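Severity: low
Component: inverse-folding endpoint
Summary: output formatting inconsistent between runs
Steps to reproduce: submit the following structure tokens with default settings.
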């Protein structure tokens, strides 16, 4: 009898959702979120892994468009193996963030709705990730 093994995908999206309340995306820049909810997303499943407090947001008097802020947030998210950033709005550090993550631009929709959109665009996100620092953002606006 053959042992059945769970199929493990080669690529798993680990997405940081910019939020203040865990339900909705913020209307401010990605780096200004109070929290980043980190999800593991495959084509068929998703799970909330962790909520990370953004200690580099406006609450700590971070300077707007500060390169140090972008580096600090990137380093923090990479510690959790994040490869995808999800937000309605990005700021002046957008190009820096795109070098480290696949940046998804999303409509003003509940976060749970966006997970299905991410799953529907799984291959596209993986392809963009594979481009390395030359990756572009992906707009999921008006894709509902």
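Observed output (run 2 of 3):
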């Amino acid at each position: 009898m053959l042992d059945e093994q769970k199929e493990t995908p080669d690529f798993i999206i680990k997405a940081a959702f910019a939020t203040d309340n865990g339900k909705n995306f913020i209307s401010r820049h990605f780096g200004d979120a109070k929290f980043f909810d980190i999800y593991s997303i495959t084509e068929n499943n998703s799970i909330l892994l962790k909520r990370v407090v953004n200690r580099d947001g406006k609450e700590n008097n971070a300077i707007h468009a500060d390169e140090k802020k972008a580096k600090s947030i990137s380093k923090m998210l990479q510690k959790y193996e994040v490869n995808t950033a999800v937000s309605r709005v990005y700021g002046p550090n957008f190009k820096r963030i795109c070098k480290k993550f696949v940046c998804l631009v999303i409509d003003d929709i509940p976060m749970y709705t966006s997970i299905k959109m991410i799953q529907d665009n799984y291959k596209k996100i993986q392809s963009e990730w594979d481009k390395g620092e030359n990756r572009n953002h992906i707009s999921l606006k008006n894709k509902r």
